[in-house]
Structures are given as C-alpha cells and as structure tokens.
Amino acid sequence: MSGFNKVVSTYQEAMAGLSDDMTIIAGGFGLCGIPEGLTREIKEMGVKGLTIVSNNCGVDDFGLGILLKDRQIKKMVSSYVGENAEFERQYLSGELEVDLTPQGTLAEKMRAGGAGIPAFYTATGVGTPVAEGKEVKQFNGRDYILEESITGDFAIVKAWKADKIGNLVYRDTAMNFNPMAATAGKITVVEVEEIVEVGELNPNEIHTPGIYVNRIIQGTFEKRIEKLTLAKN
Q1: What is the domain-level CATH number for residue 167?
Q2: Three-state SS for 176?
Q3: Is 164 helix (H, G, I), strand (E, B) or coil?
Q4: What backbone phi and psi angles, to 5 degrees, belong to 190?
Q5: Could you tell me whether strands 168-169 and 152-163 are parallel, antiparallel, or unpaired per DSSP bridges?
Q6: What is the pLDDT of residue 223?
Q7: How far apart are CA 122 and CA 143, in angstroms?
Q8: Is the pLDDT of residue 129 over 80?
C-alpha cells in the first residue's frame, strides 16, 4: 500500500498481523453480507483461541462455521445459534464459550465501541439472565442495565463497493451489522465486490467513511442461500 491507497492484492496481506487469542468483529447476518474470503483466510492461517463477535456463526460448512471444525474459536459473542449444528453441539457440551447477547444490544456494543463510548444503559434484558452481574440504574422510573461496548483487534467486513481510500457502500440488507463492525476494529479489513477510483462514489451514498478502513481486497462471492424454500405446485 502507498499513500492513501488501501487496496491489497492477496488475502495474506489483508489479514497480516492476525494471531492467536485475538478478538475479531465480523459483519454479516446469517449468510448475508459475510466476508467469505477473509473467513477462509483465517481458517488457512490456523490461528487459535479466537473470540469472534458476530450476530451468528454461519452454518456448519460455510461462513464463520468453518472455523469451528478445527476449534479455532474459543468464544462467540453473538445473538443466535441458529442453523449451525456444530455451534450448538460445542456450546451445549461446554467446548465453546458463548456470550448470548440481544441482537440490538450487540449492534449497539459495536457502534458504541467504534464511537469511543465505553458503556451504555439499555432496558433490554432487565429481569433476565442477561442482566446477571450487571449494574442496574433507574431512569424515569424504569430499570436499565449497563452494557460495556466492544472493540476488536480486527474487524472483517463485506461491502458492495469501495474506492481506493476505503469509502464504502453496502447493498440493501447485506448492510446489516457491517457498518457497526467496520468502526469497532483496531484494524478493519473490507472485502468488496467492486473497487472504483476515488471520486466515482457519490458522497451522499457512502455508508462508511474511509477513515475507519485499513485494508481493502476485491473478492469473489458464492452468496449461498442459507435456507431455500420453494412454493408447492
């Protein structure tokens, strides 16, 4: 990389510096808007003891789920076990630590971390196991619990388009957790479908400013459907 050009040509360059026991913030929701190639590179690197912060953990053989097979993940901070049978098995057997977090709270933890806010109060989870061990405070007669924000050593993000200095545009629902994840990493790596020259993106359509982005790589994507349902004739 030279100057403000953040484009790298290999996945090895994209994930350089990742090592055992780090925390990774990952964008995506189910299999929508996930950084497929970056996840495969993490698998190839063989790093272990990872804490992954993501809404879910993909499926057994795709997305973040491929990191479970070789026990590369020590802890998941997520909202949904979902369709991943190996995730469920490791969790129930005590092999995988899981911090189940309400979905909106998880998104706000990422956003707050990226904004430099160390913690925030929310009513979500009051009176449930989510609130155990957390500070409770009343505002206007209602209880709120204190939730700490999240940052990661790396953030891995999927976007539709980027210019060479890292301004990002997401596409439709593939945006999901990606904008929040992009702000919460010490090193933010973005996998995109298309890279354009600086000035080609409409400033009014940029979702994540390039100031948050460290590296960009153009990838190819399978865009697998998580669960296909067909109408009966």
Answers
A1: 3.40.1080.10
A2: coil
A3: coil
A4: -120, 130
A5: antiparallel
A6: 77
A7: 8
A8: yes
